[in-house]
Amino acid sequence: MLKQEAIKILAEHKGGAISVATMQAAAPWHDTGSGKAMHVDASACMGSASALGLGLALGRPDRKVMVLDGDGSLLMQLGSLVTIAALAPRNFYHFVFANGFYESSGNQPVPGQGVFDFCKLALGAGYASAFSFAAAETFAAEIPKVLAAAGPVMIKLDIARDDAKPRWSGSRMAGQVQSLKEQLARL
Question: pTM, whole model, 2 decimals?
Answer without folding.
Answer: 0.85
